Amino acid sequence: MTAYLLKRLLIGIATLAVASIVVFSMLEIVPGDPARLMLGMNATPDAVQALRDQMGLDQPVIVRYFEWIGGLLTLDFGKSYTYSVPVLDLVTERVVVSLPLALIALALSTLIAIPVGIFSAERRGRAADTISMGAAQIGVAVPNFWFALLLIYIFAVWLRLVPAGGFPGWSAGIWPALKALILPAIALALPQAAILARVTRSAMLEVLGEDYIRTARAKGMPRRTVLWRHALRNAMIPVLTILGLQFAFLLAGTIIIENVFYLPGLGRLIFQAITQRDLIVVESVVMLLVAMVVVVNLLVDLSYAIVDPRLRTNR
C-alpha cells in the first residue's frame, strides 16, 4: 500500500513539474513582447518598459521560471494588471462559486447515473435498457450550453422559479446562493450523467458475467444484495476513474456555463483574463487548476485502494 501511494505521489509531482514548464512557456511562445501584448499596440514605450520591469521580463528565462515557481509555492501568484490586486485575492473570491458548483453538479451526476447504469445493465436487451441508453446517448450528444439555455427558458423565464443568472453571494444566505447554482449545476450534470451511466452499465455488464455473481445467485442471495454489494463494488474502478475526470472537468471546464449564467467563478475569470490579455492571471489560475486536477486524481487513486483490496497488499 505504501509503495502504491508513493508511486502515485511521485507521478503527481512529476505531472505538476511538466505542467508548470508548459504553462510558463505560454508567455515565451506568444509572438512579440508580452508586455506590449497586454497593454495594446497604442501603449507608450515608458508604460511598456514599466510593465516589463514589473513582470521581470528583463531577467533570464530560467531565473523568471524559478521565481514564478517559488511564488506559487508560497501562494504568491503575482498581481493582476487588469484588476490591480493580487491574483490570490481574485482566486479566493471566485473559487467559492466554482467549487460548490462543481460539487453540486458531480453529486447530481452521480445520483442520476449510477442507478440508471445499474438499472440498464440488469435489463440488458430489454425496452427499458434501450430507452435509458438512448436518453444517455442524447445527453452525450447535446452540448451543456444548450441544456443551460433550455433550463433558463423553462424554469427562469416561463415558470419564474429560479433566477436566470448572476450570483448574490453567500453573504445573502445559503438558499439564495444555492438557487443561483441549481440551473448551472443541472446543465453541467446532465451530459456528465449520460457519460457516467454508459460507463456504469458497461462495467456492470462485465461484472455480472463473472462466476462469483452466478454463484451468489445460485445460492439464493437477494437480487439487491448481488447488485449493490457484490457487483457494483467490483465495477467501481472504471466508474471512479470517470468520476475523477468529470470533477476535474467541472473545476476547469465551466467557462461556457459560467458565462451563460453570468457566474463570477474561475471559468469566467479565465475568460475575462484572456480577453483582457491579463497573462499573469491566466498562467497562475491555469496552474492552480492543474494542481487541483492532480490532487483529485490522487484522491481517485486512493479510492482504488479502498475498493480493490489487491492494491492494499501491493499485488
From TrEMBL:
Alphabetical list of SUPFAM superfamilies matching this protein: MetI-like
One Pfam family linked to the record: BPD_transp_1
Primary location: membrane
CDD domains linked: TM_PBP2
Cell compartments where the protein resides: Cell membrane
Keyword Transmembrane tagged: yes
GO molecular function terms noted in the UniProt entry: dipeptide transmembrane transporter activity
Key words, A-Z: Cell membrane, Membrane, Transmembrane, Transmembrane helix, Transport
Transmembrane annotation, as ranges: 9-30, 95-119, 140-161, 173-196, 231-257, 285-307
InterPro entries assigned: BPD_transp_1_N, MetI-like, MetI-like_sf
Membrane topology: Multi-pass membrane protein
A GO CC annotation given for this chain: plasma membrane
Similarity annotation: Belongs to the binding-protein-dependent transport system permease family.
Protein name listed in UniProt: ABC transporter permease
Protein source organism: Mesorhizobium zhangyense
Taxon lineage: Bacteria, Pseudomonadati, Pseudomonadota, Alphaproteobacteria, Hyphomicrobiales
